Amino acid sequence: MILDHKKVERISKALGDPYRLKIMDMVKMQCQQNNWMQCACIADNIELAQSTISHHISQLVDADLLIAEKDGRNAKYRVNKEVMTAYVNFLNQFKE
């Protein structure tokens, strides 16, 4: 997967918020154990209003950093490894 500059900008903006980075880290850690993280678990671990957490998650999903799946009435999330790898590869071109 190759990302265009507009996609890289969207990902960078999404990752530019400390709460979104924390959410990404939490999802990554949880997914190492059972592949998905429930939205309720995210809310239990971040001291923000549910609506604010939903906004942050929405930004991460819109940037394709998280993959969302409905689980009945709830949602669960996992890191989109393909997009993360493409993003890192894009950034790696600047280190030479």
Describe the structure.
The protein has 96 residues and is of the alpha+beta class. Helices cover 62% and strands 15% of the residues. It has 5 helices and 3 strands. Strands 1-3-2 form a 3-stranded antiparallel sheet. A hairpin with a 2-residue loop joins strand 2 (66-71) and strand 3.
What proportion of the residues form beta strands (DSSP E)? 5-15%
Quote the average pLDDT: 89
- Low-pLDDT ranges: none
Order of helices and strands: HHEHHEEH
Largest sheet: 3 strands, antiparallel
Head-to-tail CA distance between termini: 21 Å
Number of strands: 3
The gyration radius over C-alpha positions equals 14 Å
What structural category characterises the helix and strand content?
A: alpha+beta
- The strands making up the biggest β-sheet line up spatially as 1-3-2
Which overall shape is indicated by the principal axes computed on the Cα atoms? globular
Helix content: 55-70%
Counted by DSSP, the helix tally is 5
Describe the secondary structure blueprint for this structure.
Layout: H1 5-15, H2 18-34, E1 37-38, H3 39-45, H4 50-62, E2 66-71, E3 74-79, H5 81-92
Antiparallel strand pairs: 1-3, 2-3
Brief synopsis:
The chain is built from 5 helices and 3 strands; from the N terminus they run H-H-E-H-H-E-E-H. With 96 residues, it is of the alpha+beta class. It has a 3-stranded antiparallel sheet.
Defining key terms:
96 residues; alpha+beta; 5 helices; globular
